[in-house]
Design brief:
heterodimer; A: alpha/beta; D-Maltodextrin-Binding Protein, domain 2; 2 domains; 6-stranded mixed beta sheet; 13 strands; about 45% helix; globular; B: mainly alpha; MetI-like fold; 13 helices; about 75% helix; about 0% strand
Chain lengths: ~425, ~280
Amino acid sequence: MRAPSRLLSAAIGAVLALSLSGCGSSAPEGTGQVKLTLWHNSADPAPLLEMYKKFEKQSGHKIELVSIPSDGFEDTTQTKWATGDRPDILEYHATVSGLLALNPAENLRDLTGEGYIARSGDLYQSAGSVNGKVYAAITGFPQVFGLYYNKKVFTAAGLTPPTNFAELAAACPKLKAAGVTPVFESGGSIWPVQILPILYLAGANQSNAYGKAIAGHSSTLADAGSPFVSGLTAYAKLKADGCFNKDIVTAKFEDSMKALVTGKAAMVAQHSDMLPALLAAAGGDQKTVDESVGFVGLSSDKPLVTYAPGPIGTFYLPKTGDAAREKASLDFVRFMTGPAYAEYITASKTFPVLKDVPDPQGVPSVLQDVKKAYDTGAVIAFNSDIPGMGGLAQLMSELIAGQKDPQKVATQLQGQVEQAAKAAGLPGW
Amino acid sequence: MVMRNRAAWLPWALPAIVLVTVFFVAPFLLNVRFAFSSWTSFRAEITWNGLENFRTLIDQDLLANAVTVTVLYAILCMAIQNTVSLSLALALQRTSGINTVFRSAFFLPTLISPLAAGYIWRGLLAPDGAVNSFLGVEWAWLGEPSTALVVVAFIDAWKWSGLITLVYIAGLNSIPKSLLESATVDGAGPWTRFRRVVFPLLAPALTFNVAVTLVGALSAYDVIAATTGGGPGDHTRALNVVMRQQWGQGFFGSASALGFTVTLLVIATAVPLVWWLRRREVTA
């Protein structure tokens, strides 16, 4: 009887030891090296992925990448987050509305004292922070929303790209007459169809005035004649006038990129982080993109771009309670915002958000257009500080399907904002 | 005598009772409270809020539409799958080489992941996809309110009919040949034989298939998510699709309320249906 018992004990011991070694996140004891879990957006560009490897090489720590698909990125992240699962590093939106949904005071580490914040100008006044505490490390240039347009199509039609909605409406019939889809919308991917109404609102959101009024509950989205209702009405009119593609309900955003590059469509409302997708649609040929695609700002009445700090390259450090891993994850943030940052900017050919880092050389012409439009006039997206705006894209689908009018969409979305604002305990609600 | 019979079947039922209790009843009872709580991603506290989540879902026009879409979808899936599968089973009942090939072919989609099946069909049914090219038409099968729900139900039927067919074939093969021969001798034609002999004796298979297809479709998510994402508008936005959206926005209490609604719907539909179907079961 004794021998089998010993065997059994040994077997259980071995299984436990194997299990513990397999489940733990720490690397061999005494080395100070750990395994860090990083939930990242599947749209992370190659230079950013390369930075993760460089950190591993420099620090000796291991990074386990958990890829979250960029389609449905917010939903999937929230679903994983709700289970109580926490990565050591989280790549996520820097908008206040996105941050509030993570309950930062409870779940995230306060990075307020870190050196990169002073080198970021007033970036953290409008992003990555709540109640005066900075939780984000933003390394990516903000997502700049505007109109991508096909240069050849506009030249052939003798038109200049529109910079306000009146010009956009006027260009539609001329482009249609030339046999081109004026604006390609991707309802099959759901989220892109909210971009045009958000662009419309840039005119009313100088200094984030409209966004603050909604978030502070001094105005509502559904107020009679509100900028939001006007934006939806302008969108509905464009649709009624046949400015959009016939397959608006089923088309995916990859389809929109392809239609733009090939000249089947004249314009696509999108943001600057979609440049890799644009390049992919051109078969990886940067020259084709440079020759055929340009970018302009658009709002209700003037040439403005809308920007929002994006998820790509925005990092948070969730509280995990593991001192070694928390130290290593802070090292990661310091690495990304330290001397290696200039290297990243050079490799990624994007613009820096840290002041002492120079602009890169050899930036593609379409990205130069983006930067030019951003420098000329940029307004933060009105929904950046408003919680509960995640339902806008779904409601836009109902607007497109003709199930709801602009006023009804505004009323319903206001209900969702109220639900979230009360849950977040925002003042004024 | 009755007591001895109960004692005899209890050991056989015990594993199922334990599994259902551990994996269904207990989680359900432990989680049902969240449907009546203020659980969100925005704060750590979870407090009882009565029927507030349901009120919010009703105010936002989400609940009634989702229930309607879910019930319609379930009825469509159940009707299509059982009609198609019973027809296939009657055609493929005899065991022969060619029938084995066809049975395998029709069973193959069952092995494919529902998400993969959805993505494949989304490509085939796109306005510039293979189906429209073959038919020579230009129709957004998944983008038109009039066709989207029916088309998704057909995709679900394509995915699962092979399995349902096998159950019907097993049911058909359990019918004694002597009964059919007697009916033939009595002058019954094929339709009369099917209506008076085959269909009544298929009742156990019918009970299983109707219950499985209906309950399965009431909890539909994957095929809808992969094909329409709930659109166009909210025409295919079933309860589980809305639940995912609420969850994704951090409204976990509302999402739990929708999950609770699905469970209630399944119980309210499946229990009386199975009871009614079992009553009409006969033995040869």
